[in-house]
Amino acid sequence: MRFLPLALAAALLAFAVYAALRPDPVVAAVDEVRRANAIAGAVVAFGDPSGPPTLVTLGEADPRRGIAMAPDARFRIASLTKPIAAAAALRAARDGALDLDAPLPGLPVPFDPRAAAITPRMLMAHRGGLGAEGFDPMFEPARLGLPEDTPCDATALHLWSTAPLLHAPDTEKAYSNVGMCLLAVATEGATGLSLSDLLAREAEVTLGGPATPLWARTDAGWEERLDFPEAFRRLGAAGGGTADAAALWSFAARPHPVQAQSWEGEDRYAQGWRVWPGPDGAALTHWGGISTDLFTLMVVLPDGEPVVALFNGGVEDLDGTFRTLFAAICSAREQTCG
């Protein structure tokens, strides 16, 4: 009988070691996505917003040479640039330089008279109507008669001056990359700052610049993908940012006015975020991706905890993977999101 206390102590110690070694369920969910999609590596940032983030690396930064992923690796963040560009517009509004509910300032007369009613708030909610039928002009400017290397902001201004809107302003939602770039044009004009300066001020994000390589697993082995920093830079406010996970986590950990509002009904876009109303409060999300080459995710849970996951590869089903991972993160924290 005297051995029972020792056995119990040993069992408790074994459980404690297991608990310490077992990954956080958020990390486990991210790693499951990484492994299921044969992605070489990832960095995850999470934790209570009142303290520093926990950074966890998964896999490799260079699978050919077996180089482990580093916590400070910089990634192409794609559409995670959008909430940061929107935050720059919100700051300009707080400073009195930009009216979010007034027509866009400093632009030429639009081709479509209805466009004169577009406001910054509509663009942040993807309700401006700027775009093209059947294709994304940011990725295919040549279909508008523009050079292939036309930056997103120039493409947006071209559409403003030459094309009808997809719908009347603020009557429906149509996700618009060029709309976010037009928002950046208005914010730059209102503040006198370049987009590079605006992004750096909000979240230590650069336009283009060096980033960890992107990899895809092929029958012949690992293949490096999309090594075109200037092409990413041309995506501007819609997707041209480069950052590390800690910088994005710090941005997400800030108070966001949109989360403090009362929301009901279905999810929608507002202030650059996708807002998911729920019984525990609103969750905020954004994901970015380019088919099988790139995938990124930023979440603010209803209780305010930010989670950032940056991958150096992509997935076949971008929206489906986002929904699966978002649900897993919410479940890991026992919160109802949407």
UniProtKB/TrEMBL annotation:
Question: What's the domain of life for this entry?
Answer: Bacteria
Catalytic class of the enzyme: hydrolase
Task: Please state every residue range assigned to the domain named Beta-lactamase-related.
Answer: 32-310
Report the EC code(s) recorded for this entry.
Answer: 3.1.1.-
Asked if the record carries the keyword Signal, the reply is yes
Q: Which GO terms describe its molecular function?
A: hydrolase activity
Tell me if Metal-binding is a UniProt keyword of this record. no
> What start-end ranges are recorded for coiled-coil regions in this protein?
none
Pfam families per the record?
Beta-lactamase
Per the UniProt entry, the signal peptide is 1-19
- Keywords linked to the UniProt accession: Hydrolase, Signal
Q: How is this protein named in the record?
A: EstB_1 protein
